[in-house]
Amino acid sequence: MLEIIIKLSLLVLAIAMLALIYRVIKGPTTPDRVIALDAVGVNLVAIVALLSIVLKTHAFLEIILLIGIIAFIGTVTFSKYLEKGVIIERERDN
Amino acid sequence: MNAIIEFLIGFFILVGALLSLVAAFGVIRLPDVYTRNHAASKSATLGVMCILLGAFLYFYHLEGHFNSRLILGFVFLFMTSPVAGHLISRAAYHSGVPLWNKSVRDDLKRDMKKASAGNKDDLKKNNKKKALVSK
Questions:
Q1: A76: contact with B, CB 8 A cutoff
Q2: Tens of pLDDT, residues B46-57
Q3: ipTM strictly over 0.90?
Q4: pTM for the full model?
Q5: A88 touching B, CB under 8 A?
Q6: What's the farthest any 2 CA atoms get from each other in chain B?
Q7: B13: distance to nearest CA of chain A, Å?
């Protein structure tokens, strides 16, 4: 029963990711694409968790934390670029 | 006891997957960046947290393995996902992405106008002070 539920959830997550990728491709503005990519990263975390249940191993659980951190850093960087035009600012002299 | 735990695991995982699906449909169907961001940042976060909780219960109960990284990922997602949503929404507003054409209120625009007017007043006062001092 649990196995069926987990496989069904994997299917549902895959459909959700397809929907988000549609928004990445079509999205009229850049922030749209960034939002959709961030959501793709968050869904990827869920897929890794479910996959490690299916494979009955806990070797992949570090990947969850890693994907979460990288998705956050990427989104912050992109929003800073969109807002200011630079990512790492130069220091002021005065 | 075992059956109850298995039911809980299945429930959390299914609810999480359905919440993620709802988030994705919101991202497709809603009309502008801000509403899409609203859907993506809240619903997807809750869905993934439900799934991670289910996975944690699975590994803890059925394999006897207490995995602290799942809890850490859980807490990290809960802290960072709304912040990322806020940052990208703010960047969208300041880079001039328009609101939906049927939205009726834009308080941030009004407040920014007020703030810039206040700055101008301050500048005038400062200039007067400087002029007085120089006299």
A1: yes
A2: 999 999 999 999
A3: no
A4: 0.84
A5: no
A6: 87
A7: 7
